[in-house]
Amino acid sequence: MEKKITLAEIYRGFWECRNFELKHYWQRAIFLTAFLTGCYAVYGSFVISCITSDKGVKCGFVVANGIALGISLVGLILSLLWIMMAKGSKTWYERYESAITAFVDRYGENNEVFEND
Length: 117
Fold this sequence. Notes:
This protein is an all-alpha fold. It has helices at residues 7-51, 61-107.
């Protein structure tokens, strides 16, 4: 005999998916923040080492600008990735919120179905 999925399980599943998306949004944000901070630090230390004349890196104008452009492009790509992930995460979060609202509107939150586990 197959076990049927109850309304309470569906309701809890919506909440679990919503909480999962919210938790992972913050994990991705912290992860990308660390990489962007690293890009800023590398770029800043590179510029400082190129500016100092005696002890720093002595490189040509074209090489210095190429390296700075490369570091900036990595930061730009990570920033765009962060924006796209945030928008996608927010879309799924809102989708689960609206599913929970529609579910409660249809079946009611205080229904006896949710109490029978």
